[in-house]
Amino acid sequence: MSGHLGHAAVMFAAGIGIPVLAALNANLGARIGSPTAAAAVLFVVALCGAVLVALLTGGGKAFPLMPAQPKHLFLAGLFVAFYVISITWVAPKFGVGNAVFFVLLGQLVAAAAIDHFGLFGARISPLTLSRAAGVGLMGLGVMLTQRVGF
Description:
- This protein has one domain.
- It is built from five helices and no strands.
- The chain has helices spanning about 5-30, 35-55, 75-95, 95-115, 130-145.
- Helix 2 (about 35-55) crosses helix 3 and helix 4 packs antiparallel against helix 5.
- The longest helix is centred in the N-terminal third of the chain and has 30 residues, at about 5-30.
- It starts with a helix and ends in a 6-residue tail after the last helix.
- About 15% of the residues are buried.
């Protein structure tokens, strides 16, 4: 696969991984009685996997370049940690589907804002009325797949 179809397939697979990750780590956190310990273990496994892939694909040469990069770019790690800890803590109480629904809703809103303003170096894609309606319909579609019980 190449081009946009290949990118779409990779991101579709990543999307499948989000609720699987949530369910697995929530279960681990519940079984050991500590969502934060489960999150820490997840990050150790993820670090090992990411370093291995970087080394196998030639990306290991990039590690020495890290100290020279703008420090705010490393905040992404805190967002990942917040996501993993929060989904691991919330999903057993709220349900994986409901938790992921709100994650997806947040992603839709944030992605539209990031694209509209070109935040963090993103390509600018203005939020037109048509695009806003599309985001709203996507949000509605995600909502219809879940019965959010408060």
